[in-house]
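**Fold in tokens:**
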Amino acid sequence: MTLDLVVRWRTEATLLKRRGAPAQGDVLLACADELEVALRLHALERLTPRQAAEETGYTASAIRKLFPGQRTIPRSALPKKARYPGPGEPDEHHKKGVRVAKARGAGQGEPDRRSRSTPHKEPR
């Protein structure tokens, strides 16, 4: 997404130059170049497993298992952030019971067919 910004700035810089504002176009082009360099350096930065864990949401031991024998990990090789629903994020399908109840139509006036209370026969 951020590289899209670099591309957009470069196209806007050429548009500014074409419309008679070469100084502003040059400034915007220089900003785009600086942003691209900063993004590349950021991607090449190497992190310790603890830093990588803080950044991705994985545990440090999970990061060590993903990159065995490496003391530092390149940021560009890190997995995407792990996403766990937190207390403030309601997740509709978080619990299995909710899915089962919705799939079976529970709460819609329909009797529960999974009932364990089956009629017992009287002993003779």
